[in-house]
Amino acid sequence: MFDVFLEHLKKILKSRFVPICIIYTVLFFLLIHGLFQIQIVDKDTLASSEDAIDERTREIKSTRGNFYDRNGKLLAYNELCYSVTIEDNGSLTTSQEKNTMIATLIGILEKYDCKPATEFYIAMDENGQFYFTAEGSTLLRFRKDAYSTENLSEEQQNSTAEEIFRFLRYDTGVDSPKFNISEEYTDEEALEIMSVRFALYVNRYRYMKDYMPITVASDVSDQVVVAIKESSADLPGVEVVEETRRVYNYSEYFAHILGYTGLISQETLAETMEAGDDFYSSTDQIGKTGLEKEFESYLRGEKGHKTVKVNNRQQVVEESEFVEATAGNDVYLTIDADLQEACYKLLERRIAGILLDKIHPGTSEGTKGERAGGILIPIYEVYFALIDNNVIDVTQFNNKKASSLEKSIYNRYLDKQKSVLSNIRQKMGLNSTAAGNELSNSMQEYLSHIYELLLEQGVLIQDKIDEEDSKYIQYTKDKLSLSAFLQHALANTWIDLSVLEIDDSYYSTDELYGMLLDYIEELLKKDSRFTKMIYSDMVYSYELSGKEVCLLLYEQGVLKKDKDTIAKLESGAMSPYSFIINKIKKLEITPDQLALDPCSGAIVVNDVNTGQVLAMVTYPSYDNNKMANTIDSEYYTYLVNNNSKPFLNRATQTQLAPGSTYKMLTSAAALEEGVAQEGTRVKDQVVFNKIPMPPKCWISPSSHGTIDITTALEVSCNYFFYEMGWQMSQKSGVYNSDVGLRKLRKYAKLFGLDSTTGVEIGEAEPKISTQDSIRSAIGQGNNAYTPVQLCRYVSTVANSGTCYDMTLIDSIRDLNGNVIMKKEPVVSSEADFSPTTWRLIHNGMWKVCNGSRSSVSGLFKSLLDGGVAVAGKTGTAQQNTFHPDHAQFVSYAPYDNPEIAVQVTIPNGYSSTNAAELVSYVYQYYYKVGDTKKLINGDATKPKSSARSD
Length: 950
Prior knowledge:
By secondary structure, the protein is of the alpha+beta class. Helices cover 43% and strands 14% of the residues. The chain is built from 37 helices and 27 strands. β26 and β27 (900-906) form a beta hairpin. The protein is globular and about 155 Å long. The protein starts with a helix and ends in a 13-residue tail after the last helix.
């Protein structure tokens, strides 16, 4: 038995299975020992090293406060959205890895039409040329960040956009960011990668925060969210986070008041940190303009935070120290949203109506150059305006998807361009002497544009031009050809030859001039303004017909497709003129799209007893939803290039001469200074010949006769107020303009015209006239005030002398509705005039709206019949003889117990009668006189009155 056992044992030991078993047994025991060591012996140590790889504090963003109107209507609020952030968490160590990852991320975003929103101030045009998108201090900050220094060398200060791009892309020096973006990427792709790399780099370089994330894209779609999560393994450091985006109701009506929010700029972030404010990070939204900016500290709330432990796979393994965020405060405005909307619609209708009254079916410009009020607008100017203001996009004409009509027009354009360039070359030939009136009007415009373009491009060096040079003087007086001047400029080294890319060979002036002509031709081919000039020629020479312009509005989606109308246009059953007139009347083509005179305006409505602003309207406006959060770049470009300047707040920034609206101030000065009394009468002799270059009364050659101060206000007699200015300017019986100006300034201060009004958004400083007391007495000279300043002035008149600061803010309340700030009325100054002075001024203003001799009283009859008596004053200010006059009207109501003041300004609005009619509509709406729905929602209508006004 034992022998058998030994025999079996020998067989087993000789088997190949034995060593395998021994090996596996040893390995098994080693594994068991290792697990025991890890899980039992070293458990605490290893757990600590695994879970405490990195401890980070992550912020919890606060919710921004809302905006409400005076009646509690919601104007601005927050909506949940998703944003894409990225942080340099150290998982990618080489530039190649980072660039590949960012390129992958950008590819995902662009697949779903989402562009990266990082801030980078270099862009590339369609010709592949780099340019800066910032200037001033912003560009200086960008240069310092790019070169990683606070002390730029002269070379760095003057570096071009392309030089900085190349430096950031390729440089591997000690102090460079070392992006090292390889040649496998095009310049356009490299620029997108660079914008993200630069934002991450700035976080580390300037703020010394390696793991502070940056926002790459905001308010992304669900498709983007899914795509990024699916690709998370290829996108280390990239996260989709929940945030809020700002949403604006009534956006078009409130854009200039509320402004908009946006991602904080690196420049602003640096400024806040330097000021000791560490609230913001690079992913924060901040108020950029308007009340969003001015009340940022109230709106932003307080952030919370939490501390997290992150393992080596960047996973959160533990959370601690959670502090909840506090929502921002809500801001309640003094504005009535319904009134604001109504005023905007009324203003747009009024401006469109003025255009309808002035457009005529022809190419000539009527009486242009004579009296500004008689300027007419030829329909061909309207056709071209649609192209000039980019409503019709000529850059689409040569796209692959261009229609047959667009392609046909583009081919004609190329033929025209070739012809124009040939003619320019001929007129600028070496021996060309044609100058001034020897050239056609269009050629004069082309050559003038070339001169301006050369200055703009720095080819013609402004600082080197000797303005005392005889040939320069001859050229500026149209007595020397552009050809002769440029050859003279070459000989005098006024031309930057580096743009000609010449070698070291010797070239004569003639040869250099030939090279300059070649350069000019290539420059013009790329110049958008030159392109527009050619299309203008095509429109006026009938090479581009009005019918084609109208059809383009449908083909490019400016107007909604209408088969019947298109068929009528194509067949000739409807004329292009009738089509355009109808579309303007229906406001399907708006004044801001045309950007002709007039195309803008402002209405301000104020509580005369508190200074609260009830409406402050600017036309044209824009949709601030497309500017908030992430800017819609295409829309932004359209706004920036819009000739009607929709970003400009007309109510607070447009400064114009007050014209005859100033005459109440002059009346007060004359009465209070004793140069006029209640019974004072002056005969209107039309021409005021007591001073050199005598001014005339606006009614010339007629006369207002012998009138007193109330009638002078009613008929707005210039001569009467010239006389008042003359009398106030006497010193020892001798006329002294400065004496009169000092007295006018004294009363301007009492009416609040020496300072900004107090509204909580940016406002231009008022300008009290410093020249010519006679003309200053009728609101000319160099007086210049904004609509809000004139509204405060007439409010002070209405309440007999109390000048309140104006305000847009009623109160600020916390999340629970508790009032934390209530805006109380603030008196800026008091005009303590005699009761007689106020009675005469008020009576004169009542006559303007209701008197028998007033040119506008008929416009206010329905209000008077409805029990609302209005007092007001017209004001027409002439810009020059080539543009229509500016139209203004100031007013208050009810006359016996003033509640509100209404001020209207229509730049280039032809006549103050147009402004007066609009004011009457505002009162009709406010006091519910007549059919208010029809009033604000109807078509544009021509002015009722064509009466001539001051």
